[in-house]
Amino acid sequence: MQLSCDRALFSTAFSVAASAVPTRTPKDVLRNVFLSVTSQGVELVGTDQEMAIRFRVDGVTTNSTGGALLPTQKVSSILRELQDANLVIDINDRLITLKAASATFRLTSEDPQEFPPVPEFDESDFFRIPAMVFRQMIRRTSFATDSESTRYALGGLLLEIGSGMVTLAATDSRRLAVATATCEAQGSPRIPEKTTVIPTKAMSLLERSIDPAAEFVDLAIRDNDVLMRTGACTVYSRLVEGRFPRYRDVIPRTGAVSIPLPVAPFYSAVKQSQIITDEESRGVDFLFSNSMVTLSSQANDIGESKIELPVEFDHEDIRITFDPKYVAEFLRVLSPETLVELQLTDSDTAAVFRVEDSYTYVIMPLSQDR
Q1: Distance between CA 286 and CA 281 in Å, rounded?
Q2: Tens digits of residue pLDDT in 141-164
Q3: What's the Cα-to-Cα distance from 127 to each of 104, 163, 206, 320, rounded to whole Å?
Q4: I want to staple 321 with a disulfide (CB 3.0 to 4.6 A). Which of 198, 258, 355, 366 is the partner?
C-alpha cells in the first residue's frame, strides 16, 4: 500500500489523532495511530478505549486500501522535523517507510488487526449546533470541572438539550459555569432520559479540533456514549457515570446590586492581585465603595498589595473575598472588550457574573476570617 500526501495536512491530522493516544497504557497497540484507507478516503484514528478521535485526511493520493499502525511517538517526531512539501508512505506488511525529498525513515509496526474498533458517525438522527458557538461554550465551561473528584460526576460537562436549546454546565463545587445556545434537530433525535455528562478531556479535544471553517457540530447522544462530529473530525466518548449536582439551585436569582465590569482592566487588576498570595492566604479582598473596587491581598512571607479600579458603583459598601484564580480563569476565556455584569448580595452569598443571557458564572466567596 502506498500513499502520496501533502506533508503539512498529514502532519496536522496526525497531531489531532495522536491527542487521543494514551501516554501510559498496558496495551501496547493503543500507543499507535491507526491509518485507515478505504474507498471513502483516508482516516487517522487514535483511542484509549474510553475516548477516540477519527480525523479525515485531505491531500492524499492512493490507489490502495487497507490499514496500518503508525507508532505515535516516532511518526510525530518525524513529521515535526520534516520540512518537505510532499510525503510518500509505503506500507509493506509490518514495515512502514516514510519518504520525503531529503530523508527516508523505516519503522517496524504492529498488527493492525489488533487495534480495537472505533465507532463511526453513521447516525441519521442527531442535534446540530453552530461550530464556533459550541467551541466557545466548551471554552467557557470546561475549566470549571474537577478531574480529581470522586464525588458526583464533576469530572465532565453536563449536556442538556431541550426546547431548541443546548446547555453546558460544569462545577467543582466551589464555582459553576453555565453556557447556553440554540440548537436544532436533524431527523428525529431522542432527548436522553439519563443525565449526559461528557468527560472534560473529550470536550477539550473536540474544542481544539474544530476548524475555523467548520459550520456545525453534530451530536449523537446514546445511553452510555456520545458521538460528536465537526468537519473532518469525529470524537467518540463514553459518558461519565454518576450524578451531577442540581446546579440551578445554587444560582442566586438576583443580587442586591449589579456592577458592570469591562473585562480588560478588571482582568489586569485581578492578575496583579494574584502576585501577593500564597497557599495559606490565597484570598483577595474585593471592596466595592465610592465608585471604586479595591483589590487587597497579603501574605506573611511576601508582603501586601492594593489595586484600585474605577467602577460604576453607587451603593453601600460591599467587601467580598474571592480566590483570584477562579476569577482570572473566568475572565481569561472572554474577549477583552466584553462587558460583564457582576451581581452581589453580601460577603457571604455566592457572586454571579453574567455575560448577556448566554453565560453565567458563579463563585462561592471565601471566609474573611481566614
Answers
A1: 14
A2: 999 999 777 667 898 999 999 889
A3: 45, 12, 16, 41
A4: 366
DSSP assignments along 255-321, one per residue: -SEEEEEEHHHHHHHHHHHHTT--STT--EEEEEETTEEEEEEEETTTEEEEEEEE----SS-EEEE
CATH (domain of 322): 3.10.150.10
Instruction: Give domain status of residue 121, yes or no.
Output: no
Nearest in space to 110 (alpha carbons), one of 65, 69, 76, 75:
69
pLDDT band at 242 (very low <50, low <70, confident <90, very high): confident
The DSSP-derived string for 21-40 is S-SS-S-GGGGEEEEEEETT
Say yes or no: 137 and 172 in one domain: yes
Strands 284-289, 41-47: parallel, antiparallel or unpaired by DSSP? unpaired
DSSP, res 139: H
Side-chain-facing half-sphere of 266: CA atoms under 13 Å: 28
User: Nine-digit cell at 29?
Assistant: 497497540
Picking from 16, 18, 41, the residue whose alpha carbon sits closest to that of residue 30 is 18
Cell of 155: 469530572
Same domain, 82 and 131: no
Check whether residue 256 and residue 357 sit in a common domain.
yes
Burial classification of residue 252, based on how many CB atoms lie within 10 Å of its CB (0-12 exposed, 13-18 middle, 19 or more buried): middle
Q: Is 295 exposed, middle or buried (0-12, 13-18, 19+ CB in 10 A)?
A: buried
SS3 of residue 224 by DSSP:
coil
CA nearest neighbour of 222 among 203, 200, 237 = 237
3-state secondary structure of 250: helix
Q: Is 116 helix (H, G, I), strand (E, B) or coil?
A: coil
Q: Do residues 308 and 294 make contact, with C-beta atoms less than 8 angstroms apart? A: yes
If you average pLDDT over every residue of the chain, what do you get? 93
Q: Would residue 136 count as lying in a domain?
A: yes
pTM of the model: 0.91
Tell me, yes or no, whether 88 and 143 share the same domain. Answer: no
